[in-house]
Amino acid sequence: MPEQSSLPAKATGGAPGGLVWAAPIVWPVRPAILAGAVGVFAAIWLTFVFTGSLLTYLASVVVAVGIAGTLGLRGHWFALLAVTVVATLVGTEARGDLGTSVSGLGGVRLLDYVIFAAAVGALVHLWRTGAGLSVATARAWLQRWWLPLALLAVLLALWAANGAPLDPQTNTDARLVLIVAGTLVIARITLPGHEREFLVAIAALTILLAAKAIALHLSTLWTIGTSDRAQAAQVQGPPAKRTILVGGDTLFVVAPAIAAGYAQRLHGRFGDRLLAAAAVACLIGVLLSGTRTSLIVVVATAIAGALVNLGPKILRVSPRTLAIVGLTSFVVLAAGAVVSGTAERFAQGDNAHNGLNFRRDEIASVQRLPTADFVVGQGLGGRFLSKDSAGNLIETPWSHVIAIWVVLKIGVIGLIAALVGALYLLVRFARAGPALDQRITMVVLTSLILLSLLVGRAALPEGVIIAISCFVMLGWGSAASSPSKVSR
User: Fold this and answer.
1) What is the dihedral of CA 55, 58, 63, 64, to 10 degrees?
2) β-sheet bridge partners, residue 393
3) pLDDT digit string (tens) for 118-130?
4) Predicted pLDDT at 451
């Protein structure tokens, strides 16, 4: 089977409005072989989840690394998809130390192994296909990515100025930096020209995520979050039991923009049915989690995706049709919120140090930082004293409020610089006349940032993976000054 070219796929079909659909998927290996390997991994991983056997964990690492490395070597966008699958479906914190015996693996997560294997494979693919790793190539990459490299230098300098601590807080931030670097390499080498396939694929992934959430919600298996092999957390009400997937709950929120954005844009009925199933899966997942912020952002991102899809055509839709669609959607959403108990969470106040009160504690804590730390940040491992859900003081390197997390790392000055940079990129994006794929990508990225205003997902492994993928699809940091326009 010939390897997939890293060049953009040629358009093969037409659609109303000049939109085209990329060429059919070119498989990196025979589909049966890939499906078999994935099936073997799934069987081994489920065995580890239910038994905690160290041997099954090691076997799952070997199989996952083999799959990711092979996809990276082929330069196929499935390599980035594999990373996303592990981060969302398997879980970002899955590791051997969660087994029934001491692993001695230092707590390295399965996701970390997969990213490393895919990134190394992608770099080898880049070298084999003629780009090489010459001085000129290195110089081009440095020119392309000078900004994140400069940011990393600032983080390291601030870390050194604060005593260069080596502790769990620093390790958490260092891992996030490595995930960003690995994902950036994989996405930059494999993704250009295949934006639409990737977006539709991760939307379809939510169907499997919803199946996992439903199975855990209905089963007697109790899950406790990042220290659980099932990589999910359950809250036993009131008002109702909640099931929150570690990693997957973020994709539930951003995927509706993809489903709404590509509705009636894919060739054949299968594509529309797939997107409809994904939209339903996202709604189920969010309602099972009972997260109010997620539900609000889901509604907003779905509307934004539909507006991006229709464009000026929205003006030609009759008010009666809009009213019927809006009323029906509201009734379905309201009924689901009532049944799941999410509606009651909107009506009742939060207990002390829980929900929105927990976020207020974080905001108050960061305001008590020393002036120097507040202004310029603490760099890698930046942390502050906050309160847990019981009101106890804890030291944490993370915040549910994305602005607070940024202040912890690079201070108010860095936050202002980030806002100015975001405004510049938005203006440049609007002036570039972006294609449909890039417009949908922008909605996905915006929904991730909105979610992170109170839930902080952009500062978690699955969040940075999605964010970096969006940056590459938007053409930011590439040699070109505007996004790719393969698919209009």
Assistant:
1) 140
2) 387
3) 999 999 998 888 6
4) 94
Nearest partner of 252 among 217, 314, 304, 209, judged by Cα: 209
Q: What is the pLDDT of residues 361-410, one digit of tens each?
A: 888 888 888 999 999 999 999 988 888 777 788 888 888 899 999 999 99
The CB-side HSE value for 432 (13 A sphere, CA atoms) comes to 22
Helices (H) and strands (E) in the chain, counts: 18, 7
Residue at token pair 């990213």: 115
Longest CA span, the chain: 64
**What angle (nearest 5°) sits at the alpha carbon of residue 94, between those of residues 89 and 100?**
130
Question: What's this model's pTM, rounded to 2 decimal places?
Answer: 0.90
Torsion sign (Cα): 87, 246, 250, 264? positive
| Residue pLDDT, tens place only, 138-195 | 777 777 788 888 999 999 999 999 999 998 889 999 999 999 999 999 999 999 999 9
pLDDT classification of 245: cutoffs 50, 70, 90:
very high
Phi, psi at 486, each rounded to 5°? -65, -40
Among 240, 155, 278, 253, smallest CA distance to 463 is for 253
Report CA 207 to chain centroid distance, whole Å: 16
Closest to 441 in 3D by CA, of 196, 87, 264: 196
The 10 Å Cβ neighbour count of residue 271 is: 17
Tell me which amino acid residue 443 is.
V
Pairwise CA distance, residues 258 & 271, whole Å: 12
DSSP string, 111-148: HHHHHHHHHHHHHHHHHHTT----HHHHHHHHHHTHHH
Q: Is a pLDDT exceeding 60 seen at residue 35?
A: yes
DSSP 194: -
Helix (H, G, I), strand (E, B) or coil at 478: coil
